[in-house]
Design brief:
The complex is a heterodimer.
Chain A: E1 5-11, H1 21-33, H2 37-57, E2 61-67, E3 71-78, H3 86-89, H4 99-102, H5 111-118, E4 121-127, E5 131-139
Antiparallel strand pairs in A: 1-2, 2-3, 3-5, 4-5
Chain B: H1 3-10, E1 13-16, E2 28-31, H2 35-41, E3 46-50, H3 55-64, E4 68-71, H4 79-88, E5 92-94, H5 99-109
Classes of the chains: A alpha+beta, B alpha/beta.
């Protein structure tokens, strides 16, 4: 029996009605498996922000999650426009989100900084016109 | 104070009363409208007072395990919002009171 649980989610284009479903599902599974509350919270925050980013900026995408007793690995892959200036995008308060997104309570420039803060490791690979891949890890212990 | 007790005492309009509202305890009041801040800061068991009444508010409330959501300032809350609250099992109350006044009512009831 393998100790690894693999999950895959599709994030729809511009569909704010479903954003949070993937992170909600992972959160429920982790709780059921007995992960520490702080670990569950970190994964929920990091993944939810990732989901929202994909809805706002990248025409959706896929999220692959691997859960082991040691860590939770999240790989968020999209075919969006890519991030022109990653360093700038990582600055709290910097945002390129449109007004309609701000009206919903997002677009404060906290998505990527929150993802960085609440994951233990984060890596961004991005190519303009091709897409972005964000890999995040949260350690279980 | 349970969510159900507060719903009854406050007289706030009930948009959705979750099945577990009689058991879930309100531990504190919390106020914020920016969802990216709320996502990281809503304390578990908080009565979250906000004017942001869209379905993403519910997603954040669910992920942070808020005790309930209180929509203040008579902010618009449509049928889709109510349906989603019901589907997700989140108690949502609605009031014309300002955010601070609503949160103070929660605080005084603790």
């Amino acid at each position: 029996m393998s100790d690894t649980i693999k999950l895959q989610y599709t994030v729809s284009t511009d569909d704010f009605t479903r954003a949070g479903e993937a992170s909600g599902d992972v959160k429920r599974k982790l709780k059921k498996m007995g992960s520490a509350p702080e670990v569950v919270r970190k994964v929920a925050i990091a993944m939810y922000e990732g989901e929202i980013n994909m809805v706002i900026h990248a025409n959706g995408g896929t999220i692959d999650v691997e859960i082991t007793p040691e860590e939770i690995l999240m790989v968020l892959q999209d075919s969006g426009p890519g991030i022109a200036d990653v360093e700038k995008a990582m600055q709290a308060g910097y945002s390129t989100a449109p007004d309609r997104v701000r009206a919903l309570g997002f677009g404060a420039g906290m998505g990527l900084p929150n993802m960085k803060q609440y994951s233990d490791e984060m890596e961004i690979e991005t190519t303009i016109g091709v897409g972005t891949k964000v890999t995040m890890k949260v350690f279980q212990t | 104070m349970t969510v159900k007790e507060f719903a009854e005492q406050s007289g706030f309009r009930i948009i959705n009363l979750a099945d577990n509202a009689g058991e879930v305890l309100i531990r504190q009041a919390y106020c914020c409208d920016l969802l990216s801040i709320a996502m990281t800061k809503v304390p578990e068991g908080a009565a979250w007072v906000t004017v942001m009444s869209n379905i993403n508010t519910l997603a954040v409330a669910s992920l942070t395990e808020a005790a309930c959501v209180i929509v203040a300032e008579n902010a618009a809350a449509d049928a889709e919002f109510a349906e989603k609250a019901k589907a997700q099992g989140i108690t949502v109350l609605h009031t014309e009171k300002p955010v601070f006044d609503a949160a103070l009512m929660v605080h005084e009831g603790l």
